[in-house]
Design goal:
L-2-Hydroxyisocaproate Dehydrogenase, Chain A, domain 2, 13 strands, alpha/beta, globular, four-stranded antiparallel β-sheet, about 40% helix, six-stranded parallel β-sheet
């Protein structure tokens, strides 16, 4: 990572602009008026089941649908989760392998697919998981045409783009968990060198949810001050934090076979923002429509999230080096999309 002094003439700035996605107001208004919030988890592997548990603990749903092609698996998970009902906020749990049970769903969380194995990158999962999408997304939308779809399955950005194309829903209604988990990991690693809570460190990981992701440090701050202005935040420590962030998933998979607690916590935060129409800014994956000259692919940029999905994508004034990092991430993703 190159040191960039405040007066460096090699860094160009662009004014902040915002890309607002138009949504159907009648759909949004009708959703907000309803007191119910029905969520379906599509795929009951480690991530799906842990996400279900996280949602129940937070009391974010009035109805939770557990969808699996293996109905015995779905019923077993339902029974186990139901035993905690006396301690959760009130909700209804349904186990099913029938697409008709997705009717009137407000949000489908898509976690189905092949998992990452030791030695694999997320992009290695492309073909198998795209094939699963092609056989499932049209059926989901047929029975739940007003739903939002939150993609969690890897390779996240490839899956988000393909799901958007297959679903044919209005812009912003299909989106991915993006680099929100990467961002959380990065802030945690940064905080290890300074006595400040990681929630007060404002730094993003953007681009691919994968090895080509990058950290735009020119805008990273703590309490409104540039992050690099703190003596504890050397360029070496920032570089170390970014490297650790990219290695985290590989370490966890090598040690226990899969990652699921962190991503389930991230997904529950995303669901909470949708359910409460919170308008929070999160680095989420969605199909780009010209931001930085990029189209026909999905990657993560800071996005305003509410009840209608990704409502606004914020176009940051990246430095020349950061723009190069973004374009590199886009090129990596595009190379895989071109093979599909």
């Amino acid at each position: 990572m190159k040191e960039a002094q405040s007066g460096d003439k090699n860094l160009s700035r662009q004014p902040i602009s915002i890309f607002v996605r138009q949504t159907s107001s009648d759909i949004v208004e009708s959703m907000l008026k309803r007191e119910s919030f029905k969520v379906a988890i599509f795929g009951l592997g480690h991530v799906g089941v842990t996400t279900a548990y996280a949602l129940l603990l937070k009391g974010l749903t009035t109805e939770l649908v557990l969808f699996s092609r293996d109905i015995k698996k779905a019923e077993g998970e339902k029974a186990d989760l139901e035993h905690g009902l006396p301690f959760y906020p009130r909700t209804t749990i349904t186990a099913t392998s029938n697409y008709e049970d997705l009717s009137e769903t407000d949000l489908v969380i898509f976690t189905a697919g092949l998992g990452q194995k030791p030695g694999q990158t997320r992009l290695d999962l492309t073909k198998g998981n795209v094939d699963i999408l092609k056989s499932t997304i049209p059926k989901i939308v047929k029975h739940a045409p007003r739903t939002l779809i939150l993609m969690v399955t890897n390779p996240l950005d490839i899956m988000t783009y393909q799901a958007t194309e297959l679903a044919g829903l209005p812009a912003g209604r299909v989106f991915g968990s993006g680099t929100l988990l990467d961002t959380a990991r990065f802030r945690l690693h940064l905080s290890k060198n300074i006595s400040i809570n990681s929630t007060s460190i404002h730094a993003y990981i953007l681009g691919e949810h994968g090895d080509s992701s990058f950290a735009p440090m020119s805008m990273a701050t703590i309490g409104g001050k540039p992050l690099i202005s703190f003596p504890e935040m050397s360029y070496d420590h920032i570089k170390w934090a970014l490297e650790q962030t990219k290695k985290d998933a590989y370490k966890i998979i090598s040690g226990k076979g899969a990652t699921y607690y962190g991503i389930a916590t991230v997904v529950s935060s995303i669901v909470e923002s949708v359910a409460r129409d919170s308008k929070k800014i999160m680095p989420l994956s969605s199909v780009l429509t010209g931001q930085y000259g990029l189209k026909n692919l999905a990657l993560s940029l800071p996005s305003i999230l509410g009840r209608s999905g990704v409502e606004t994508v914020i176009d940051l004034p990246l430095s020349l080096e950061e723009l190069a990092d973004l374009n590199n991430s886009a090129s990596v993703l595009k190379s895989y999309l071109d093979k599909i």
